[in-house]
Amino acid sequence: MRGSTRGLVVSLLGTVLVVTAQAPTVSAPRGDTVSGTLVATVADDFAAGEDTDGLGIIPDEDPTRFVPLAGVEAADLAVAPGERVRARGRLAAGGLRTAASGVRPLTARSAPSEGSTPLVAPFEEPEVAAAARTTSLLAITVRFSDGSGGTVDKARLSRTLFGDGDSVSTYYSETSRGSWTTKGRVVGPFTVSGSTRGCDWEGWGDSARDQAGRTVDLSAYTNVMVVWPTAACGWAGLGHVRGPYSWINQSTPSVLVTAHELGHNYGLPHASSYECRDASGRRVTISDRCSVVGYADPFSAMGNRGARLHHGIHRQDLRLMSTRNVAYDEATEVDLAPLYAAGGVRALRIPRDGRSSYVVEYRRPYATFDDFASASAVATGVTIRVDQGGDDSLLLDTTPDTRSLDDAALQVGRVFEDPTTGMRLTLEARTSSLASVSVSWPSTRTPPAWLEGAGRSRANVPVWRPPADLLRP
Ligand SMILES: [Zn+2]
């Protein structure tokens, strides 16, 4: 689910482990059974820029609990997060220890995820009208039985989540241009067994939801966040990916971390960057030697640099806008409106290969969170990212000689060329309200092999497919 490079490593390791460990452990450990909804999690170490993926089950018998699964990786399972499963294994501290063979679907399989299908097909993207959405968030504060870490300031947390100005509520209102509402309340503190020297996150979360549930109707909330004074977790926030729960390990929770974990709840992956080198090891904008730098995109709260609004890929994933799709071999000039304009073409999607596309956007200062200086590079150029279709978005650096990504945007008169297709993207001109970009293709190049399946006509456009079940109803 996370960065493609590391995902590949994980799945390769998983394969090796299965092959070598198959004989002695054919079946999962027996003993305990948990049935419920399979949910993915991601733990965010903002300071180190590292994340850890996990899996767990919200049990049918008690949906206030969350049972992490140990011993399995999502890549090993025949079921996907969101599906109902029965897992067999051994319950212990840290969750249910099981194996891939111990996790079985309880319902008929849904259609396979669209994320693995080619992004090229003859299809025109319909214009999307942002739908209204109301998030009811219950934040439950926790204090430890030994008193360590003190208490979380409830009034301050309430302002961070629901206040006017710099808050999570304002963040999602701005990123949706007013169509989303975030409301809720802060309760607690409830005392849980433990101290800041440990990190029994699932136990603390279960206990907090259980205690709060005696006086608050948890089912009235779409999302539940449990917050405790900073403990030895090694991460600042942990969230369900497409699920209702988050866990915040911050004595003074920030808008960045809480908005980020809600972003995971809505199904968003990380905003990362792509660091690429040529054959001689010199840094370049794009090549076939690239590595994912997790969280590195400075222009989204799904990175770890600052609570900037969502970029175009994630806004499309959240069904807040659509892109103008450029067909392979279609030479065109497009006037891009700023990403947060009320209408117009706000992002351009260009074929890259069979599984990803480039998405180009023009950011301008907007409201509270996109308060860039209007002369800063992100606001005077167009920003290019690779969309991997549900995996981390990858910001490209068009000035790879500088280490900073703050100046990643393509400036007027500059050209970005894709080495595989030969596509050339040029920022021709710009005003404060539009950026004129041209797209051209080499006339003599043989169409790439990935176009074969869909034919080689101009009708081939990169298609955004909504990540399966990205938004829960
Ligand atoms: Zn995250």
Q: Layout of SSEs?
A:
Blueprint: H1 4-21, E1 32-45, E2 50-59, E3 67-70, E4 84-92, E5 95-97, E6 103-105, E7 120-121, E8 133-144, H2 154-162, H3 168-175, E9 180-192, H4 201-212, E10 223-228, E11 237-241, E12 245-249, H5 255-265, E13 271-277, E14 283-284, E15 290-293, H6 312-317, E16 324-325, E17 332-336, E18 348-351, E19 357-361, H7 377-380, E20 383-387, E21 393-395, E22 415-417, E23 424-430, E24 435-440, E25 461-462
Parallel strand pairs: 3-5, 8-9, 8-10, 10-12, 13-21, 16-18
Antiparallel strand pairs: 1-2, 1-4, 1-11, 2-3, 4-5, 4-6, 7-25, 11-12, 13-14, 13-15, 17-24, 18-19, 19-20, 20-21, 22-23, 23-24
The structure holds zinc ion.
GO molecular function: metallopeptidase activity
Organism: Phycicoccus avicenniae
Domain Peptidase M11 gametolysin: 196-280
- Global shape: globular
Would you tell me the structural class of the helices and strands?
A: alpha+beta
Distance between the termini: 22 Å
Percent of residues in helices comes to 10-25%
Bound molecules: zinc ion
Gyration radius (Cα, Å) is 23 Å
β-sheet strand percentage: 25-35%
On the 0 to 100 scale, the average pLDDT is: 86
Weakly predicted, low-confidence segments:
1-26, 110-126, 454-459, 469-473
Précis, in short:
The protein is an alpha+beta fold. Helices cover 14% and strands 30% of the residues.
Question: Could you please describe the fold and organization of this structure?
Answer:
There is one protein chain. The chain is an alpha+beta fold. Among the domains are: 133-265, Collagenase (Catalytic Domain); 269-462, no CATH class. Helix content is 14%, strand content 30%. The chain is built from seven helices and 25 strands. Strands 13, 14, 15, 16, 18, 19, 20 and 21 form an eight-stranded mixed β-sheet that branches. The protein is globular. The two termini are 22 Å apart. Bound molecules: zinc ion. Zinc ion binds next to strand 1 and helix 5.
